[in-house]
Amino acid sequence: MTTTQDSQASQIFKLAVVLALALLLLEVDGVCSGNGGRKGRNPKSSVNKKLLLFNGALPKLPVQISAIHNKSLSPWEITISRDSSRVPKFISEARCLKKGCVGPDGEEDLSLESAPIQHEVMVLKMVHDKVRGQRKRKREIVYQLSFQVITVGCTCIRPSVVRHD
Question: Whole-structure pTM over 0.90, yes or no?
Answer without folding.
Answer: no
